[in-house]
Design brief:
Strand content: 5-15%
Number of helices: 6
Largest sheet: 2 strands, antiparallel
Radius of gyration: 19 Å
Number of strands: 2
Shape: elongated
Order of helices and strands: HHHEEHHH
Strand order of the largest sheet: 1-2
Length: 123
Amino acid sequence: MEIKELTRAEEQLMQILWQLKKGFVKEVMTQLPEPLPAYNTVSTIIRILEAKGFVSYISHGKSHEYFPLISKETYQNFATDKLMNGYFDNSVQHMFSYFVQKEKIDLKEADAILKLIEKLKNK
């Protein structure tokens, strides 16, 4: 199955569904920051996620309990690959260098990454 890119609003709702594991629209809305969007807006976005193959539902009378079909890890892999290919020529070195230059990685984090690399080299 081909994974499609999510909009910011779709991704925000998926993050909530991944955390909840399953939920009704009202339950998803309780996790959203203020100001809350309209119920119909959230419901529409969830139906778009369903059309994109990200969620499905179980019917409970007239209401639907939604659950993710694609795991967070699967989408994370897709998004990371897209980022790497689109902006860093598929190079971890280029991406790491970018974050270091933009000071998005402090020395403690860089040290932890180097230790992880050493651990992987010794396998």
